[in-house]
Amino acid sequence: MDLILVRHGDVEAAAGLCLGQTDAPLSAAGFGAMQQLAATWSGRAPRFLFTSDLKRAQQAAAVFAARFAIEPLTDARLREVDLGQWDGKRWEEVMGSDAARYEHWANNWVIQEAPGGESFADVIRRTGAWLSSLLASTGHDDLVLAVAHAGSIRALLCHALGLPPARAFALTIDHAHSARVRTRNGQFEVSYVNASSFQLD
Q1: 94 near 18, Cβ under 8 Å?
Q2: CA distance linking residue 160 with residue 46, whole number of Å
Q3: Which of 13, 28, 138, 188 could be stapled to 142 by a disulfide with Cβ–Cβ 3.0 to 4.6 Å?
Q4: Does pTM top 0.90 for this prediction?
Q5: Tens digit of each residue's pLDDT (9 = 90 or more) over 133-147
């Protein structure tokens, strides 16, 4: 299987916002960036197009759905990390009004969930479940495109690379950029990460 992971474009939200599962839409610039990325695709169309159920990912996936005339398959397991009570607030506000819990979370984010939210380990588990179900339902030469978020893409790449979750932020995942993961003989191969254009054979 060949899996192409795409992070949605820039969103219509204030800078410095805790943007986990807060359902912000793509900005005009973010939509334009997705169109530019889609225009770099060459070769066969993907067999499947998956997307997170959050609006910004769905709007980004719609660009590819139109290009390939394919129906997106929505899966909540591809969502961004849930920041719970902090979601939608400014980080500055959280650090000021909830300093003790923020500091504890910041030092233990892999296993410590945000208040009322989830930890990165939770994201690892749910994206891993999605990946397992995908591997079980696709053929050896299938090409799959999935539109998701920085957190969920990092989690999937941790699975593929065998990277410890604490090293997830060593991976740069920019808006409207792509990564490519292949499976060969039961092993993962990561062809590229954080590319501004598709690099397809």
Answers
A1: yes
A2: 20
A3: 138
A4: yes
A5: 999 998 878 999 999
Q: Quick one: which of 107, 81, 84 has its CA closest to 94?
A: 84
> Are 151 and 8 within 8 A, CB to CB?
no
Buried residues in 173-183 as b, exposed as e (16+ CB within 10 A): bebbbbbbbeb
Cβ 72 vs Cβ 164: under 8 Å: no
